[in-house]
Design goal:
This protein is 85% helix and 0% strand. With 68 residues, it is mostly helical. Helix 1 crosses helix 3.
Length: 68
């Protein structure tokens, strides 16, 4: 389960960095790398969103897994 936690954290960080770049520089890294509105780009956005929801809903369980 730690691998899923780690993948979710990485995807959320990618999303956070992307939104930061969009907000500050109006530069969308995901669209630049994977095309807009390509299927792969949409998949990245979906995975980032699902990862964020996973971490939000499993916050206590993730902490218990990593601190145990």
């Amino acid at each position: 389960m730690r691998y899923i936690d780690f993948a979710a954290v990485i995807l959320v960080l990618v999303g956070a960095i992307n939104w930061g770049l969009v907000g500050v520089f109006q530069f969308n890294l995901v669209s630049t790398l994977f095309g807009d509105p390509g299927a792969l780009g949409r998949l990245i956005y979906i995975l980032v969103g699902v990862s964020g929801l996973f971490l939000l809903l499993q916050w206590k369980a993730v902490q218990d897994r990593w601190l145990a």
